[in-house]
Design a protein that fits this description.
Shape: globular
Order of helices and strands: EHEHEHEHHHHEEEHEHEHHHHEE
Distance between the termini: 16 Å
Number of strands: 11
Number of helices: 13
Radius of gyration: 19 Å
Strand content: 15-25%
């Protein structure tokens, strides 16, 4: 029995380009916002809620509200948890709508890390942990995710071949996406033969670095009923933060162990009910441990679960990331949560590529990860559903 949605996703839009050197961040925000509102059958004048991350230019929502001409906002925020931010934004927008604070919430993302390569960037504010961790070689995300993979292999016997199956499934989906950054299908052997980046992760175990953006429009049930476009219900939402507990780190457990059950309980469904999953895939190991912690398989069995095409659409055990995901399609601004939501909406609307459309797709799970699994990360899970006819 579903609990029923208090809000609907009425419009989505993914920027079609993967390298955008001729646009400012504000212009990309505006392009994706216009695309999502047009998809919903709404205009900027209808928006009374606005959410973006802290990387948006200027004073984030304040500057962007002015740039987008949003003149009558009654709700705005810039919750920041890296790649999981946009799933939290959907949950927060749904809560604001349920409370009567707003009726039409616009969520936008834009980033240009590919075009910004070589430019001098600020290091940002150092955390209180920096002096204790960086001297041991924690110099970037890949070193921290490699540590998770090493520990998972030590604890459970997971192999590099099993991790490679995640990339293979993503590549077999990406070949159907004309906008995918890496549309070439690859084999397990090609993943293993790619350049070692940080043992045991190879180049093809890592996500792409792309410019881009996306937007989502969340509306009240009353607004949804008045729109001609098919909408998607927000049935469940959960979020949490995971950290090292001052050095007592658990490398192989993610925040999905908390955010997943919260979302499933709110929606009134279980992992067995899910038809399609958008799983954050910054690295292949991210998918394996997240699937375990969401309850799709026993802890430690993720490697065996993803092998031999289990993640491939339309008939795999758990069809995932049918746009090619962050491993092949798009990872705009080094933040993949937004595109995970967009592809789940496509599946529920029956608008995924015909070769990859999951038959009778009624329930989708979306999971986002932000930060680093090895140290401190955000986790957010959404359960989305196709409204009853």
């Amino acid at each position: 029995m579903r609990s029923g949605g208090v809000a609907h996703i009425a419009g989505v839009f993914e920027h079609p380009r993967r390298e955008i050197p001729d646009r400012t961040l504000a212009e990309i925000h505006a392009e994706v916002a216009a695309g999502a509102l047009a998809d919903a059958g709404l205009g900027f004048e209808d928006v009374d809620g606005f959410l973006c991350d802290s990387m948006a230019p200027g004073w984030s929502p304040l500057s962007m509200a002015e740039y987008l001409g949003l003149d009558h906002l009654s709700y705005f925020e810039s919750t920041e948890s890296g790649g999981s931010s946009y799933l939290q934004h959907v949950g927060h927008a749904a809560a604001a709508i349920a409370a009567g604070t707003c009726r039409v919430a616009l969520i936008t993302l834009a980033g240009t890390p590919r075009s910004d390569r070589g430019r001098v960037a600020g290091r940002g504010t150092e955390g209180p942990e920096t002096g204790f961790e960086w001297l041991w070689g924690f110099t970037g995300p890949v070193s921290q995710y490699a540590l998770v993979a090493q520990r998972h292999m030590f604890e459970f016997g997971t192999t590099s071949e099993q991790l490679a199956w995640v990339k293979v499934a993503a590549s077999r989906h990406a070949k159907h996406n004309p906008h995918a950054f890496l549309p070439q299908e690859v084999t397990v052997e090609e993943v293993l033969e790619s350049r070692l980046i940080c043992d045991p992760l190879h180049l093809l175990d890592c996500c792409v670095v792309t410019d881009g953006g996306g937007a989502v429009v969340v509306v009240s049930p009353e607004v949804a009923r008045a729109l001609p476009r098919q909408t998607v219900e927000v049935l469940g939402h959960g979020e949490t933060a995971k950290h090292t507990r001052n050095g007592r780190a658990d490398l192989i457990t993610t925040g999905a162990v908390r955010s997943g059950p919260l979302a499933f309980a709110e929606a009134g469904v279980t992992p067995r009910d899910i038809d399609y999953a958008s799983i954050y895939d910054s690295f292949t190991i991210t998918v394996v441990v997240t699937i375990e912690d969401l309850g799709f398989c026993e802890k430690g069995r993720g490697g065996a679960f993803v092998a031999d095409g289990a993640l491939e659409a339309p008939h795999g055990r758990l069809p995932f990331n049918t746009d090619g995901g962050g491993l092949c399609n798009n990872h705009p601004g080094n933040r993949g949560g937004m595109t995970k939501i967009i592809e789940a909406v496509r599946q529920l609307r029956g608008e995924a590529h015909p070769a990859l459309q999951v038959p009778d797709c009624e329930l989708a799970l979306v999971h986002g990860t932000g930060g680093s699994l090895a140290t401190r990360s955000g986790a957010a899970t959404l359960i989305l559903g196709r409204p009853a006819a």
